């Protein structure tokens, strides 16, 4: 169904949550970095990761993979004695793969508006590569980072939008922060 649509377009998704039927309008995104439109849900092998110390994430209120980067940063923040946020109010978005690459998400404009409303100072945005196939399918497409900067400017936000391609990019930026 999504293959005949273009990204940036919205599709209506019906789903069941806690035995209640619900609907949502979801923006199509590039799900494979090759221009294939989708909603960010795919079939994968069930993987179980055993960690020491044990890590538990209550993700019931989080839909989709877009919190991958922030989950990863939060987990990393708990492993050492350093608080990498250094007292700053930080938010962000992006999928994350096993190699630490940050991927494109849908609805970044809405996330920027919500983050600004919550007085976020720094927002990590995927600096995804736009392929020629993506440009052909959707000529006006820009990276999540470019879209985030444009939205922040349009709402006159003071928030700093930081481009990230990898988990390491985000961590490197956090290392430059001064204690608040």
From TrEMBL:
Its EC number is 3.4.21.53. Keywords: Hydrolase, Protease, Serine protease. The keyword Hydrolase applies. GO terms for molecular function: ATP binding; ATP-dependent peptidase activity; serine-type endopeptidase activity. Residues 58-177 form the Lon proteolytic domain. The active site is at residues 66, 111. GO terms for biological process: protein catabolic process; proteolysis. Coiled coil: none annotated. The keyword Protease applies. InterPro entries: Lon_proteolytic, Lon_Prtase, PDZ_sf, Ribosomal_Su5_D2-typ_SF, Ribsml_uS5_D2-typ_fold_subgr. PANTHER family: ATP DEPENDENT LON PROTEASE FAMILY MEMBER. This is endopeptidase La. The lineage of its organism: Bacteria, Bacillati, Bacillota, Bacilli, Bacillales.
């Amino acid at each position: 169904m999504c293959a005949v649509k273009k990204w940036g377009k919205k599709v209506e998704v019906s789903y069941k949550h806690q035995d209640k039927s619900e609907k949502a309008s979801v923006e199509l995104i590039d799900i494979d970095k090759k221009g294939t439109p989708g909603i960010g849900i795919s079939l994968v092998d069930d993987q179980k990761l055993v960690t020491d110390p044990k890590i538990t994430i209550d993700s019931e209120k989080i839909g989709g993979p877009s919190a991958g980067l922030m989950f990863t940063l939060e987990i990393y923040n708990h492993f050492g004695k350093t608080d990498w946020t250094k007292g700053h109010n930080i938010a962000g978005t992006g999928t994350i793969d096993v190699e630490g690459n940050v991927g494109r998400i849908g609805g970044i404009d809405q996330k920027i508006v919500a983050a600004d409303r919550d007085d976020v100072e720094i927002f990590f945005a995927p600096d995804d590569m736009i392929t020629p196939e993506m440009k052909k399918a959707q000529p006006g497409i820009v990276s999540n980072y470019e879209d985030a900067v444009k939205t922040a400017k349009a709402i006159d936000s003071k928030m700093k939008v930081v481009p990230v391609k990898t988990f390491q990019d985000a961590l490197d930026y956090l290392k430059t922060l001064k204690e608040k």
